[in-house]
C-alpha cells in the first residue's frame, strides 16, 4: 500500500527558497536595525521610530493606503460583478489584467505626460473653457495613479469568488421573496467575502510601501513608509533606521494579513 506522505526530498527546494528569500532577508533587516549610522549597537532607532515625526509618517501611510484600497474596492466590486454576468467574461477579465503586465515606471511616466500642464487632461480642461491646473504632484494624482495600478489586483480575487457562487442560491433567495439588496447583502456578499479580503491584502499591503509613485507622480509631497525606507538607505545612508522602519512595516503587513485572513470559505456555494 502506497504511503500518502510526501517525500521530504521534494520539499528541499521549497525550504531553501523560504530560508534564502524570506527568513534570511528578514533576519538581516532585524539585525541591521540594532545599529546606528556609525555602526554602534543601539536601541535608539526603535526609540526614534516612536517620535512624533515617524508616528505621523505611519499614520499618513495608513491613511493613503486606506483611501487607495477603499476606492479600488468601490470600483473593482461592481466591475467584477458585471464581468460575471457578461458573455465573454474571460476576455474582458484579460483586458483588465493586461495593463498590470506593463512596467510600473512606464505607467508612471505615461501619467506624467497625461497630467502634465500641457497634457491631455489639461487640454480637455482648456477645451471646455477651464484654466489649466497643476494636477501632477498632488494627492489627487497620487491616489488616482495608485488606484489605476492596483485595480486589476482587486478585481481578480473578487471576480473569482463571485464566479464560484452557485446561481441556485441566488435564485432561491429571489424565489423566497428577498429583494435585490437583501440578496446581495445576505447571499452574494457573504459568499464572496474571502475574495474581498484577498483583494484588500494585495492592495493595502503594497500601498503601505509605495515609493516610486510618490517620487514621480506626487513629487515627494506624499511621504510613505516605503519612501522613508528609500531615503534612509539611499540618501542618508542610515541603514539602521531604514531597517527599523522596515521591521515595523513587516509587522504592519503581518497584522493586516491576520485581520483579513480567511476564517472560512466557500465550496460549491456553501459556507464552510
TrEMBL record:
InterPro entries: MetI-like, MetI-like_sf. Its main location: membrane. One of its GO terms (biological process) is transmembrane transport. Residues 58-260 form the ABC transmembrane type-1 domain. Keywords: Cell membrane, Membrane, Transmembrane, Transmembrane helix, Transport. It is found in: Cell membrane. It is a multi-pass membrane protein. One of its GO terms (cellular component) is plasma membrane. It comes from the Bacteria. Gene3D superfamilies: MetI-like (1.10.3720.10). The chain crosses the membrane at residues 12-34, 62-84, 91-115, 135-159, 198-218, 238-260. Belongs to the binding-protein-dependent transport system permease family. CysTW subfamily. This is ABC transporter permease.
Amino acid at each position: 500500500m502506497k504511503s500518502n506522505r510526501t517525500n521530504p526530498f521534494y520539499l528541499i527546494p521549497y525550504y531553501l527558497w523560504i530560508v534564502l528569500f524570506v527568513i534570511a532577508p528578514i533576519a538581516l533587516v532585524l539585525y541591521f536595525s540594532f545599529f546606528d549610522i556609525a555602526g554602534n549597537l543601539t536601541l535608539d532607532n526603535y526609540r526614534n521610530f516612536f517620535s512624533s515625526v515617524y508616528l505621523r509618517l505611519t499614520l499618513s501611510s495608513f491613511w493613503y493606503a486606506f483611501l487607495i484600497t477603499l476606492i479600488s474596492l468601490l470600483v473593482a466590486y461592481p466591475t467584477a460583478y458585471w464581468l460575471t454576468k457578461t458573455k465573454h467574461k474571460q476576455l474582458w477579465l484579460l483586458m483588465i489584467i493586461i495593463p498590470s503586465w506593463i512596467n510600473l515606471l512606464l505607467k508612471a511616466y505615461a501619467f506624467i505626460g497625461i497630467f502634465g500642464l500641457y497634457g491631455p487632461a489639461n487640454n480637455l480642461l482648456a477645451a471646455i473653457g477651464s484654466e489649466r491646473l497643476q494636477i501632477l504632484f498632488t494627492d489627487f494624482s497620487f491616489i488616482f495613479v495608485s488606484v489605476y495600478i492596483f485595480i486589476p489586483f482587486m478585481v481578480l480575487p473578487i471576480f473569482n469568488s463571485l464566479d464560484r457562487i452557485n446561481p441556485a442560491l441566488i435564485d432561491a433567495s429571489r424565489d423566497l421573496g428577498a429583494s435585490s439588496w437583501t440578496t446581495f447583502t445576505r447571499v452574494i456578499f457573504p459568499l464572496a467575502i474571502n475574495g474581498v479580503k484577498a483583494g484588500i491584502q494585495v492592495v493595502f499591503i503594497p500601498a503601505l510601501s509605495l515609493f516610486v509613485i510618490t517620487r514621480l507622480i506626487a513629487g515627494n509631497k506624499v511621504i510613505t513608509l516605503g519612501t522613508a525606507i528609500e531615503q534612509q538607505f539611499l540618501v542618508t545612508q542610515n541603514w539602521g533606521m531604514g531597517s527599523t522602519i522596515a521591521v515595523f512595516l513587516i509587522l504592519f503587513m503581518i497584522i493586516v494579513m491576520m485581520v483579513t485572513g480567511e476564517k472560512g470559505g466557500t465550496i460549491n456555494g456553501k459556507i464552510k
